Amino acid sequence: MSNTDASGEKRMTGTSERREQIIQRLRQQGSVQVNDLSALYGVSTVTIRNDLAFLEKQGIAVRAYGGALICDSTTPSVEPSVGR
Questions:
Q1: Fold topology of 2-70
Q2: What's the pLDDT score for residue 71?
Q3: What tens digit of pLDDT does each residue of 11-24 get?
Q4: 81: Cβ–Cβ under 8 A, 6 or more apart, which residues?
Q5: How far apart are CA 48 and CA 79, in angstroms?
Q6: What are φ and ψ of residue 48, in 5° steps?
Q7: Which residue, among 55, 64, 43, has the nearest Cα to 19 in the 3D structure?
Q8: DSSP labels for 1-55?
Q9: 74 DSSP assignment
């Protein structure tokens, strides 16, 4: 699904389609930024954060400050140390 905005650019409106595109960007670039994705897809930053949270639960991405990184299954996750 897509709509055309005033500038003639196509904007995606489907959640699953947008998430697929975010996955492709992560695979190509290794990381994404919330503000960039929000502007690109014409949705709120809250929507993008929800998308990234969903992708993190799926094991596809790891959220980071302001965005997310592609989840590399060959790199062990680092657990924060608790009270030393």
A1: Arc Repressor Mutant, subunit A (1.10.10)
A2: 85
A3: 556 999 999 999 99
A4: none
A5: 25
A6: -65, -40
A7: 55
A8: -EEE-TTS-EEE--HHHHHHHHHHHHHHHSEEEHHHHHHHHT--HHHHHHHHHHH
A9: T
Strands 31-33, 10-12: pairing kind? unpaired
The predicted-structure confidence for 41-75, as pLDDT tens digits, reads as follows 999 999 999 999 999 999 999 999 999 999 875 44
Q: Which pLDDT does position 39 carry in this prediction?
A: 97
Q: Which long-range contacts (CB under 8 A, 24 or more apart) does 55-58 make?
A: 55/19, 55/22, 55/23, 55/26
12 in Cβ contact with 2 (< 8 Å)? yes
Q: Are 43 and 6 in contact (CB under 8 A)?
A: no
Residue 71 DSSP class: -
Contact 32, 26 (CB under 8 A): yes
